[in-house]
């Protein structure tokens, strides 16, 4: 046999049923509640349920006949390109390879965002990156930053879309402060607030390549999907395209989290006029969820630096549509510490000067 106990949502004290009022009453704070309301509150919880229908269309025989594929024996990357390419370099590690055969299997991309940034423009973006960045290691500032390798790459993405319905309950308070003689009286009103709403999400991007750090791909976003075109083998001319090696099911969790959090934030933003608000329960469910495979344009640039007699390779990535650049170059910790101390010292001098001026003017008597 199962039992259920009810606690006051205002003070946490036990509730007991009163036959006279027909309500659950709290002996601690005096509040009363309808039994139906308490049963509904007890049944609610954080029960997000968000799902997406995965794509299943694979490359057709016609598409496969116009494309070549290979697996890099050095890093394991699986890439494809147009039928006219016979030899190239791996877009990730730079190893020379010979294309081995026609593409087989794999989920066919539905959309492609074309390159708008040319190779010359990408080179200029790379060169300009180092200007005015005083916290970079000296090895990037004292010598010319030469491009060791530069590759035109389409990175696989999964684009998630769905309609999300959210139902949330909040505990809210209003405080009223008044004076009665020598006493300050604080009166607190407790509220149970419920909100529900529906939002539509389109093209939430999640990187489908395990070989590129998610922090890099997320730094390159966003892409303007209004400029996307339907996939056809011809778009790969002069470029490489990575096959997705992280399937949609593995990426679904990141997309579902973004949907749930965005929906909850949008609903919570409608609760206004209270002094304090806290979430009591949240339930976000989805419908019409689907996943669209797509290819996004990225210029991959490697530069090699010799530090303490050791060669280090640094990777730069440029959004091939917008020109946004991100990289794995660390900042110089010594320079950062000196900069912080300099700013702190400058602020201290200003504050000390203001205090001395105030003292001389006798502002405080």
Task: Describe the protein's architecture and organization.
- The protein has 365 residues and is α+β, with helices and mostly antiparallel strands.
- The protein has a domain at 1-43.
- 23% of the residues lie in helices and 38% in strands.
- The chain contains 7 helices and 16 strands.
- The longest helix has 29 residues, at 333-361.
Please give the number of β-strands.
16
Strand content: 35-45%
- Residue windows where pLDDT falls under 50 for at least 5 positions: 335-344
Specify Rg, calculated over alpha carbons. 30 Å
The largest pleated sheet is described as:
11 strands, mixed
The protein's oligomeric status is: single chain
Q: In angstroms, what separates the terminal alpha carbons?
A: 76 Å
| Succession of helices and strands | EEEHHEEEEEEHHEEHEEHEEEH
Shape: elongated
Q: Helix/strand-derived class?
A: alpha+beta
Average pLDDT confidence is 76
The portion of residues assigned to helices is 10-25%
The total count of helices amounts to: 7
């Amino acid at each position: 046999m199962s039992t259920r106990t009810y606690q006051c949502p205002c003070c946490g004290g036990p509730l007991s049923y009163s036959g006279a009022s027909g309500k659950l009453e709290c002996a601690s704070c005096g509040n009363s509640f309808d039994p139906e309301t308490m049963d509904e509150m007890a049944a609610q919880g954080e029960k997000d349920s968000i799902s997406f229908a995965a794509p299943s269309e694979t490359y057709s025989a016609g598409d496969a006949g116009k494309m070549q594929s290979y697996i890099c024996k050095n890093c394991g990357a699986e890439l494809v390109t147009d039928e006219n390419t016979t030899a190239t370099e791996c877009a990730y590690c730079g190893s020379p390879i010979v294309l081995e055969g026609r593409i087989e299997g794999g989920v066919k991309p539905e959309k492609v965002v074309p390159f708008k940034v040319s190779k010359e423009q990408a080179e200029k973006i790379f060169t300009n990156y180092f200007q005015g960045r005083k916290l970079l290691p000296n090895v990037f500032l004292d010598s010319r930053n030469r491009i060791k390798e530069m590759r035109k790459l389409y990175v696989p993405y999964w684009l998630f879309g769905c309609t999300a319905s959210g139902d949330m309950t909040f505990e809210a308070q209003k405080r009223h402060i008044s004076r009665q003689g020598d006493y300050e009286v604080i009166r607190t009103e407790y509220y149970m607030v419920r909100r529900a709403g529906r939002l539509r999400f389109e093209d939430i991007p999640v990187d489908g390549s395990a070989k590129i750090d998610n922090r890099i791909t997320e730094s390159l976003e966003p892409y303007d999907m209004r400029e996307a075109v339907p996939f056809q083998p011809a778009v790969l001319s002069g470029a490489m395209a990575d096959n997705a090696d992280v399937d949609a099911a593995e990426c679904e969790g990141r997309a579902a989290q973004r949907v749930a959090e965005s929906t909850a934030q949008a609903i919570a933003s409608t609760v206004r006029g209270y002094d304090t608000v806290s979430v009591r329960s949240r339930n976000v469910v989805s419908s019409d969820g689907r996943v669209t495979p797509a290819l996004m344009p990225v210029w991959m640039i490697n530069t090699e630096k010799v530090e303490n007699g050791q060669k280090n390779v640094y990777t730069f990535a440029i959004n091939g549509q917008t020109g946004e650049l991100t990289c794995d170059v660390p900042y110089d910790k010594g320079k950062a510490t000196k900069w912080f101390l300099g700013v702190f010292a400058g602020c201290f001098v200003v504050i000390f000067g203001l205090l001395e001026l105030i003292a001389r003017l006798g502002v405080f008597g």
